[in-house]
Specification:
With about 500 residues, this protein is α+β, with helices and mostly antiparallel strands. Helices cover about 65% and strands about 10% of the residues.
Length: about 500
């Protein structure tokens, strides 16, 4: 009588094992498929847009020798050095062109997809992990910065890895999990100062929960890295490059954050007015679904992710309110994966499957819509400085180029135009036979050109107008005189115009 019972038990065990293997195989294939789609979205159009100001600055720095790159980074950049060290090595192999340099961000951005899956699986469930991966794959916000030659996707990936091993150490406080949490946390902090807003609460949490020597050493090591960066932080705090942040009201930037996190560059559209309302509606739906549909373990993990995301979003806001204002969506990226995990948990809550599926479809559909809108609308894309350079064409002599977009134009144009020095002298005289003006579509050509000036051509490049004028005879002009003359060629004039001189010997 015992034989059949044992046989039945063996069959049941084998069946259960087979089901787990099959389930794991399906899950693995789904993750591979989602990651492949995400990789295609990132790599397929990697070189479609030209460099904008920040990327052109990075491309220039990564083209220098290692020592010169570090020196330039300390002066001109506003974040720690890890991306630039990795980017310098990457550029030695793949170059500093758009596709070559951006491919580092695209590769790291693709890695964010399985990282989001692992975070969701560890904190909530396998279902939530797959949904978080889908969000990461299709997110226009993640796709945009996966196609930018800057440090932001490295920040997301390393912050995600820190979150993953925070969750692992919380669940199983082994020395390995604690050490890997410390490693990825330190690397995240070495990538961007705002990583500290995620890493610090993780450290405090683990110190409170684990309370052993290993976590004390690990947290101390991460703190030591942060302390070592303090001199760099203070040296860069007054960097003039950060002045653009205060150019937009804090209230507007607060509205931009939820729209950017969900719809990418559509935060520049009228949709920004509804950002906080949409965030409140989504938060309400997520809370309801989690409360009615999740078990205690899933609630525990989603709650932890929500708490960490809240610190990343709210502590910099508090600092902005007291005067240290660096509050912009891309700096808050360490909150993105925790938020994706929370929303994914709500969408896959076992006892609210129908409502969760509807929410997931709405979110993924809005991601696709936003990505198509950004791809089809130049106003949501990077300025086409490569197109402006083509419109300027070649010159046989020395010419001056006046860019009404000011300092935002100088680095990209110096990247795309030959024989333009990267660092232009603030004074000096140039003898020019041509003055070209890069203005805006709403500006008009002067009806009465100055004596000796003749219109050579005009071309429209998205929102820019490129007007070329020959000057006969050639004139020796200071940079200030060249900028002042632009208004009489294409006006009305705009304050803060930048002047570049191509192939110019300067007289002192």
């Amino acid at each position: 009588m015992l034989v059949p019972a044992r046989s039945d038990a063996a069959v049941a065990a084998r069946t259960s094992r087979a089901l787990r293997v099959a389930s794991g195989s399906v899950e693995a294939w789904l993750l591979v498929g989602v990651t492949a789609v995400g990789a295609w979205l990132r790599f397929a159009t990697l070189g479609a847009q030209s460099y904008w100001f920040d990327e052109a600055q990075a491309a220039h720095e990564l083209h220098l020798s290692f020592g010169s790159m570090i020196s330039s980074m300390v002066v001109h950049e506003t974040n720690p050095p890890l991306y630039f060290v990795l980017g310098w090595l990457w550029a030695r192999v793949f170059g500093t062109g758009e596709v070559g340099l951006r491919s580092l961000s695209a590769l790291v951005g693709t890695a964010v997809i399985p990282i989001a899956y692992l975070c969701g699986r560890e904190l909530v469930s396998r279902r939530a992990g797959l949904m978080a991966a889908a969000f990461a794959a299709l997110s226009p916000f993640m796709i945009w910065y996966s196609q930018e030659a800057r440090e932001y996707m490295l920040l997301v990936a390393l912050s995600g890895a820190s979150l993953l091993y925070f969750a692992k150490a919380w669940n199983v406080p082994s020395t390995r999990n604690i050490a890997l949490w410390a490693l990825f946390s330190a690397l995240a902090v070495l990538t961007h100062f705002f990583a500290g807003f995620l890493v610090a609460p993780e450290a405090l949490w683990l110190l409170y929960v684990i309370r052993n020597r290993a976590i004390a050493i690990a947290a101390g090591a991460v703190a030591a890295v942060q302390i070592a960066l303090v001199p760099l932080l203070f040296s860069q705090a007054g960097n003039s490059l950060l002045g653009f942040i205060s150019g937009t009201r804090l209230g507007t930037r607060i509205q931009q954050v939820p729209v950017a996190f969900a719809l990418g560059n559509l935060y520049e559209s009228p949709a920004v007015r509804y950002g906080l309302l949409g965030a409140a509606a989504l938060a309400g739906a997520v809370i309801v679904l989690l409360l009615i549909g999740s078990d205690s373990r899933e609630l525990r993990g989603a709650g932890a992710a929500a708490a960490l995301a809240a610190v990343v979003l709210l502590l910099p806001l508090f600092l902005a309110l007291v005067g240290e204002d660096y509050y912009i969506p891309r700096a808050l990226m360490p909150a993105w994966i925790p938020l994706a995990v929370v929303v994914a948990a709500a969408c896959t809550a076992p006892r609210a499957q129908a409502a969760g599926a509807v929410l997931a479809l709405v979110l993924l559909g809005s991601f696709v819509y936003a990505q198509v809108k950004v791809n089809d609308s130049p106003q949501y894309q990077r300025p086409d400085w490569r197109g402006v350079a083509r419109a300027l064409g070649a010159t046989s002599g020395t010419r001056a180029i006046v860019a009404y977009d000011g300092s935002l134009a100088t680095d990209p144009l110096a990247t795309y135009l030959p024989r333009v020095p990267w660092t232009e002298p603030s004074n000096g005289v140039a003898t020019v036979g041509e003055i070209d003006v890069v203005g805006y579509r709403w500006q008009t050509l002067s009806r009465s050109l100055p004596a000796g000036a003749r219109l050579m051509s005009t071309k429209t490049v998205n929102d820019f107008v490129v007007a070329r004028f020959s000057i006969d005879p050639s004139q020796s002009l200071t940079r200030a005189q060249i900028a002042a003359s632009a208004g009489s060629l294409l006006g009305p004039p705009v304050a803060g115009a930048a002047v570049l001189v191509q192939n110019s010997p300067f007289a002192r």
